């Protein structure tokens, strides 16, 4: 067991070295509330993390009916007992005094408390009224990546077969819709090919736009432990910021924003030019190689260097690194996903693995990562708009099969057009065709782009807004009905992480007041609406989490995400199993595509694909002609510059992102004292050169303004690439005097005041990485430190700024943790 009292200052804890192909040693991280010792814990209740996509397994400590701490599960394959800072401390938010405990309804412009019957009757009455007057297209649902599998599945059934609407999506649209789309474009189906276990066997690990040290900190612990063991892996880091990953990289590329396709095409060019490819694998398992080779034939490192603003020699080094290894693992996240060519870029990473034959064996894996704890469940259950079980909305046989599972007529299930993505749902609300929007477990008034627009949409009197959440968030403050929800630890359900590992999270304590599990709320709505199947029986036939899980298993049977071999009993007895888990794979499946590409055949694929430039859906006939045997598709893409380029008025590019201490809009982590103290307020990162040129210094209060809005924060001078500003997107207004947002024409605090309403044409994911901005000084810092952490990618630069001990509460307890491994590449280390 490790002492975790300094895990704010040292987020990744102590090292347990292990060598390549060895088993990662266990280390149990435990944190108990003040005054609680292990002997006073009455029960330890099985669960897993709800504050990132790692799926770290943990037990919840309970005493006298209260949560009093957590510990990592030593036997779990994902984390081997380790927990990151958010897991160790974030559970405290459950007991926050401002939890919602009774429903609220808007009366005379104010939200007032009421009872559940009044609130739900109002929701059901408005639903029936709109169905009668305007039809199912007038109702939409916008959900989360933080609920449980059983809740997403129930929501998908009642929305698609009950209401009959095509307007159902999750906030996974903002973070990992590109992951799903890129996998469908290449493999015909969603589902991560690789496994976290591949980190133990890899020789080279390439992280494309993925700051794993802060977004999946336990997997970074895994890599740190390998770095100190025998035969450590070499890293390729593609990130414009000097992250902890970059410190340990053999090669660190910091490209200009929006140029990932150019960089990846150059890596493919070099890989093919030097014949670092597996031609037998390409011939046996892929289509499209000749077109890909032709497309990248002129994409030399010198060509890419001009576009990306990185040295051609460094691109050549990166190409050699990924092209000569015998075991390559690649991961991809928001630095790729939140750009104008998001899917095109992510697909090129898939292409790199396919032409090298790097799939389906230990250490040769691909992870199009997720940003949220249950994003995978959103996608597989159909709460992101797609059909449940990775069925194809364009395939009538798939629709008929789903109709059989639900016992409804096929025409009941909307499949006349592509599912409506979140950005379009809000546009329909803005235009007035959508008149009711039910938002569950997410806070778009802080997380969506161009916040002044989102506030305006949610404030419309004609839009009936239902918000289901734990707190009176910025979004809830604009709602007509607010439903108090139970959360992790207060309800039971399954959750699936980014490498397909299914965990069971069990109820440990009662929710506060009258708060209810999201599943119970959805079931109540289904009963009040009296949704029926084609025989007149109840459409939703389950009444608790376990029966909902069993219903989902029937829906998943025979599909790529087959859960039929799983059960609550099995998940209680074990600690994480990867799907598919069925008769053929009773212990789960570590890696997909070990024997070829299995779900790309025209008859079974989840998608017929899209045009990578326009996003237009391909038809079945076109797909069948291009890929009749169901092989992986090597889809080429030309580079196109970002939609919005810096100019004299807005000379900087602005990118948003995360810090290790917070999750999404801080509704949970901002209420955990250790996490809030570590990063209490928004900050703005700038390069040392830009700061010197503009006469700005550490701690100066600055205003970041764009074409859509502005925000203010204190400056942190870092090693970020020149011409780029970074702002964490976590900070909204619930913990400020205003509470809901800035006044008219006043600068805000939220990064998304400045981001653009625009999206990748294929995945429809918003472009949080490519806005443009101007920077102006508001007042001198006069020695006041930036609130930015000093322990992470936001650490101050080595010179010209305040010393590490002056910035942020983490620095008040320790200086910046030193680089842990001497073999980091000289140019990649700070």
TrEMBL record:
<feature type="domain" description="4Fe-4S Mo/W bis-MGD-type">
    <location>
        <begin position="42"/>
        <end position="98"/>
    </location>
</feature>
<feature type="compositionally biased region" description="Basic and acidic residues">
    <location>
        <begin position="813"/>
        <end position="830"/>
    </location>
</feature>
<keyword id="KW-0479">Metal-binding</keyword>
<keyword id="KW-0534">Nitrate assimilation</keyword>
<dbReference type="GO" id="GO:0043546">
    <property type="term" value="F:molybdopterin cofactor binding"/>
</dbReference>
<feature type="region of interest" description="Disordered">
    <location>
        <begin position="778"/>
        <end position="830"/>
    </location>
</feature>
<dbReference type="InterPro" id="IPR009010">
    <property type="entry name" value="Asp_de-COase-like_dom_sf"/>
</dbReference>
<dbReference type="Pfam" id="PF01568">
    <property type="entry name" value="Molydop_binding"/>
</dbReference>
<keyword id="KW-0500">Molybdenum</keyword>
<keyword id="KW-0004">4Fe-4S</keyword>
<dbReference type="GO" id="GO:0016491">
    <property type="term" value="F:oxidoreductase activity"/>
</dbReference>
<feature type="compositionally biased region" description="Low complexity">
    <location>
        <begin position="789"/>
        <end position="811"/>
    </location>
</feature>
<dbReference type="InterPro" id="IPR006656">
    <property type="entry name" value="Mopterin_OxRdtase"/>
</dbReference>
<keyword id="KW-0408">Iron</keyword>
<comment type="similarity">
    <text>Belongs to the prokaryotic molybdopterin-containing oxidoreductase family. NasA/NapA/NarB subfamily.</text>
</comment>
<dbReference type="GO" id="GO:0042128">
    <property type="term" value="P:nitrate assimilation"/>
</dbReference>
<dbReference type="InterPro" id="IPR006963">
    <property type="entry name" value="Mopterin_OxRdtase_4Fe-4S_dom"/>
</dbReference>
<dbReference type="InterPro" id="IPR050123">
    <property type="entry name" value="Prok_molybdopt-oxidoreductase"/>
</dbReference>
<dbReference type="InterPro" id="IPR041957">
    <property type="entry name" value="CT_Nitrate-R-NapA-like"/>
</dbReference>
<keyword id="KW-0411">Iron-sulfur</keyword>
<keyword id="KW-0560">Oxidoreductase</keyword>
<dbReference type="Pfam" id="PF00384">
    <property type="entry name" value="Molybdopterin"/>
</dbReference>
<dbReference type="InterPro" id="IPR006655">
    <property type="entry name" value="Mopterin_OxRdtase_prok_CS"/>
</dbReference>
<dbReference type="InterPro" id="IPR006657">
    <property type="entry name" value="MoPterin_dinucl-bd_dom"/>
</dbReference>
<dbReference type="GO" id="GO:0046872">
    <property type="term" value="F:metal ion binding"/>
</dbReference>
<dbReference type="GO" id="GO:0051539">
    <property type="term" value="F:4 iron, 4 sulfur cluster binding"/>
</dbReference>
<protein>
    <submittedName>
        <fullName>Nitrate reductase</fullName>
    </submittedName>
</protein>
